[in-house]
Amino acid sequence: MNMNIRSLFLEHVAQTSDSPMLGVHIDIEYAKGAWLYDYNKRAYLDLISGISVSSIGHCHPKVQAAITNQTARFAHLMVFGEFAQQPQVHYMQQLMPYLPPSLNSIYYCNSGSEAIEGALKLAKRATGRTQIISFKNAYHGSTHGALSLCSDFNFTKHSLPLMPDIHYLTFNCTADLDHINEKTAAVVFEYIQAESGINTIELDFLNALTARCKHYGVLLIADEIQSGFGRCGSFFAHQRFNHTPDILVLAKAMGGGLPIGAFIAPKSLMHTLSFNPSLGHLTTFGGNAVCIAAAYAVLEVLQEEKLVERARTIEHCIKTHLSSSHIAHLRVEGAWAAVEFKTTETCFKIIKSALQNGLITDWFLFNSKALRLSPPLNIPLQDLKNALQQLNLIIDHG
Question: What's the predicted TM-score (pTM) here?
Answer without folding.
Answer: 0.95
